Batch of 3 targets.
Target 1
Amino acid sequence: MGSTNDKIKGSTNEVIGNAKQGVGKAVGNDRMEAEGKMQEVKGEGQKAMGKAKEAVKDTVNRKL
């Protein structure tokens, strides 16, 4: 998977995770709130992976 795809999927997971957290908190559903937090953290990891891949690619391209 490319860096752009990782960043897009990460952003999507962050948005959905935040929404789940908000809904979970609003309706008093601790499980949904926790799932939302996990999804948000997953998204942050995906975005970080995308940024790391991009940095490696940029470094390799500069050395060529």
Target 2
Amino acid sequence: MAKLLIVPGSCDALGGTLVTLALLLKGLQQVQGHDRVVVLVRRGSYMEGYLRDFGGGAFLELITAANQSYFFQAALDWVDRQPRNYPLLLDNCVERPLLGALTLWALRLRLSGRSCFHFCHDLARSHHPLGYFTRKLAFGLLKPKALCNSYFTSTQIHSLMPDIRGVMYQPVDLVRFNSNLSLPPLALQPILERKLPVMLTPSRLNKPGIVNDKNLRALPPILAHLKDLGHPHHGVVVGEDTSSDGSHTRDLLAVAERWGVANLFTVLPPTLAIADYYRFARVVVTLAPREPFGRTVVEALAVGTAVVGSSTGGIGEILGQVAPDWRVDPTDPRQAAETVVRIRQDPTTPQKLAHARRWVEQTCSTAVYARRMLELTGLMRPLLAGREP
């Protein structure tokens, strides 16, 4: 029986790619596909511990290596020794340290007769000429079949990987993300005691102006406009500060100070209990203009919390499926504030949220995602030929 061999691009980062992989393994158990996938993981890495804790230990093949670059080379060597009818899935392997090894292996993999897929969780861009050339060379030699997390992503990576085989909207753990009542997280309790609705933004704090800028600097002006409109909210950002010295957090708090909403704005560290934060938020606001997918959107909708999101990128694409009028220009904070107020006052909001929840269940469940992966990689016959999410 053929197996899908998955080689991850990173074994030491907690992010959407790792969460998606864990949910794939959960979905495989639901569709009786537990013996159809092997995930190669660096021994002792964060990924190994996370996937084991998530119940995915039986899927793992451990590779001993000093770092990710050595792991990647050793993993491809392991793959090369497996039967040729076992397809290979490179999971977001676009970072610069991996591209040299991928270039060296590309023709060998391509000529081996093994089906090679690459899952694009981001836009795979580099504005540096050498970085772009390296990506172009590696994937030009490999010619993988591309899978993407949104149609937006597929348009962005087409020049690197033109053979796009399918779009798979990312899965959500509907057991964790639900509307069941829970106790408020301790970090939220002082905010909730102020009796102000919470405007939540789960997001990494990264450097403004990069390709996937999270546009967090738009949040303080939104809070200022909400205050002026007579609907003050308390903004809460939950996520990792990617700077080495906490400067991204300090810069964001300084923006809130300049807009006169420092007392209405809080930055909290990342947490695995983010579902509880969604449940106590009045609205989620996410305005990253070039977000490839927007996991925040589907998680919030699964819980039953409204989302005001960017009209562009993957966020706009997902909201367009369920609530097009909740999309806003990511550069217009006043429009975002007015949309927050309109959603609160709109009597049809409960019906829209119910529709959105059904869409998430039908499109983004772990079982749907796992079956779709097996179909697209040739390990399971499609239930409906040509089906797209």
Target 3
Amino acid sequence: MENDGAAISLSPAQVELMSFNDVEVLREWQNIDILAHSQAGGWCLLIENKIHSAEGKGQLLRYLDRVKRDLPDRQIIPLYLTLEGDDPSDAAVEAGYLSMSHALVLELAEQIINQNRSRIPDDAQVLLDHYLATLRRLTMQDQELVDLCKAIYRKHRQAIDLIVEYGTASSVTAAVEKAVRSQVECEFSDSAATVFRFLPVSLGECLPSQDGTGWPAMPRPVPILCACRYEKEAAQLRMNLVVGPFADGEKRSRLMEAIKDAGFKFKKWGLKPEAKFTRVVSCIQKLTTNEDGEADTSDESVHQVVAALWKKFWKDGEKIIQVVKNFDWS
């Protein structure tokens, strides 16, 4: 359902009738993160799991070729799993890769575990509870952890800001921040090791604060943010405009419907009240290469890349502003 329009020959009904007694799950088989396959069912699930890293050049296609070579009699379902449901490369999409987010895995796992809790053995339940807690931390949906982080940040704000600024932020992210600020007047921003999040003033002026949003470190709770991420392995910058979670899920659904009606495409899950983070605008710009054929991460080069990226990104950003202005926030 999340990959409507993709060429998937398996139907939900077929999956429901399958027996999973012979399923074998392999980890790091020929460098593939997770490989699950069934001889009786004739299928193979290939999962590339990315957390705080990007797709390597040709990586997904190589993995798919290896599985086709070694399991030629199986129907292969290749999956690209990331924190926010990032799209794989165009070549990987053409090869059949589907995308999925850890946030969606959390939603589905919670539903299935709660439905079957009375039938799950105690030792398995402990394992599953730890797994759910890990997913909540990864997707910043562990409220106890968020509250603790807020308290620590309030108490040690100056020290933490210095650590972020001088200790963990990469030189590329620092160059990205400088370049974005030269292009965009920001209401506020936040920098981490590989991502620079910001709210353009032109968007913030028409964007009211909303309770229960997904960026607790920001000066005010806003439902939409822009982010520019440095994807080192792919040698590129990715700029996203993301709608976060609301305390009022129905209002979020109405906003997503309005964004959809304005011509923006995103996964169907983003329309649900319980959806968390939905990327509605995404643009990529490759870093230029130096004379050695390596990615040029100098400040001057990064500045040029960010300028080109912002120019094409903000064409859609201005359309989002019109949606926000016309939306009934009451």
